Amino acid sequence: MNKARTNPFNNIAMHGALILYTLIALFPVFVILINSFKTRKAIFREPLALPDADSFSLIGYQTVLKQGDFFLYFQNSLIVTVASLFFVLLFGAMAAFALAEYRFKGNTLMGLYLALGIMIPIRIGTVAILEMMVATGLVNTLWALILVYTAQGLPLAVFILSEFMRQVSDDLKNAARVDGLSEYAIFFRLVLPLVRPAMATVAVFNMIPIWNDLWFPLILAPAEETKTLTLGSQVFIGQFVTDWNAVLSALSMAILPVLVLYVIFSRQLIRGLTSGAVK
Questions:
Q1: Domain match, 142 and 25 both
Q2: How far apart are CA 231 and CA 77, in angstroms?
Q3: Do the beta carbons of residue 236 and residue 63 sit within 8 Å?
Q4: Which residues form the ABC transmembrane type-1 domain (predicted)?
């Protein structure tokens, strides 16, 4: 078995597959970035070529900064994403701790009920959600998006975190209770640090769909002051004419924050895995 694990051909095949998958995943990002620095003619003439002295142009970025309120859209997307992730991780971890730690009547049914949220898309209830937001006066507010994304991410968060929390040693928690720690102290000071890999995973899984979503911002927050990046980029897409320079430039500027957040959460994931492996 050890020989199979150290077989150089297996390592080469595994790394080759990972490199191929990485290239396939990064190819659309590469195409968007290089074409955002080209003229309109160069985009359609040579879409895969790097910009040169003749094709290089910043007209797309100039259009985005002049015509669209990019910084407002970016601020709205950042607020919605960070706030939604905070509530998903907080409430998801609390619910997962309750399901994993305490045994009560209906514990299993409650877990299955929450798991249904993973299988049933939240967009099915768009009409009911819109009616509820209208009744509560939350239409065209960022809170409407935050609440919807929190509800959307909780089922997966509870499902993942509860499995990790069941692996936390009962002896460790009981020793903390003997030392006089409250349940809240055990949760925040003992359990949460041990499930950091799972929390980073939940954050990564929820971050990208929230940042890239167009459906709910278009329905719940279409006002100019509450537009997100994805919705604000649609201003450059017309029925008959599309400003592809501006569209690609807006997408390029929207990709960078996602990459930064992904790197941050990835580092936390690796740090949590390595620290959790030493006991």
A1: no
A2: 10
A3: yes
A4: 74-265
Which residues does 221 contact at the CB level (< 8 Å), separation at least 6?
Answer: 139, 140, 141, 142, 144, 145, 227, 228, 231
Strand, coil or helix: 38: strand
Specify whether the CB–CB gap between 233 and 24 falls below 8 A.
no
Which domain range does residue 7 map to? 1-57
* Chain centre distance of CA 245: 26
pTM higher than 0.70: yes
Query: 71 with 208, same domain?
Result: yes
CB 64 within 8 A of CB 253: yes
Token pair of 93 as six digits: 């971890």
And the tokens for 256? Answer: 């960078």
Write the CB contacts of 210 (distance below 8 Å, at least 6 apart in sequence).
Answer: 80, 81, 84, 85, 149, 153
Asked if residue 187 and residue 81 are part of one domain, the reply reads: yes
Q: Say what the pLDDT of residue 253 is.
A: 84
pLDDT digit string (tens) for 157-199? 988 888 888 888 888 888 888 888 888 888 888 888 888 888 8
User: How many Å from the N-terminal Cα to the C-terminal Cα in the chain?
Assistant: 26
Task: Note whether 108 and 99 are within 8 A (CB).
Answer: no
